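User: Teach me something about this protein's shape.
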Amino acid sequence: MLDSIKYNLSHLASFSGRDARQTFWYYILFLVALRLVISMAVSVPMVISMMQRAFVQAQAGVDEDAMLTAMMQDMGGWMAMSVWVGVAVQLVTLALAAAAFVRRLHDSGRSGWWCALAIASGLAGAAVSISMIGQVQAMFAMSAADPIAFQQAAMEQRSNPLALLGWIGPIVVIVFGAMKSTDGPNRYGDAPVRF
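Assistant: First, the predicted structure itself:
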């Protein structure tokens, strides 16, 4: 697995040649794990900060509704930061995975241009996330005052068809990444070395 990661990190700008399924998927697993670690590094301080504030307010005798309102406003701010971090991580992940995915496509005898669909989907998903920051902050700000309106706004966010754009890329990667390798040499090169 480590050899696969080293190989892919040393071939970030190499869009020619072929990568075996195993080489590709170990590297993708590494990128997914990296994203999870970064997500946790952002989320844990957010939760700790909100809990500390809630404990201080509870000890000071602050009204429960006021505490909930403050917590939801904090969450709105943290969500905006989370979106920006998520977008940055998304862009870095797209850059780190692009050449590996093109080589994987080549290994199954397909054009590397299919990678453009995954990248376009990732960029569209990032743009949609950024465009919804204000709505999410407003939604969290209203949550304590009007829980029903909050639930309706949350449902609208989840059912927004544009939010589905970001899922096209991972589906393309999974489908094409899982395809069988062509046996022996193909028009993109010799059979790849497996790590």
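Now, about its shape. The chain has one domain: 2-177. The first helix runs from residue 2 to 9. If you'd like, I can walk through any region in more detail.
User: That's plenty for now, thanks!
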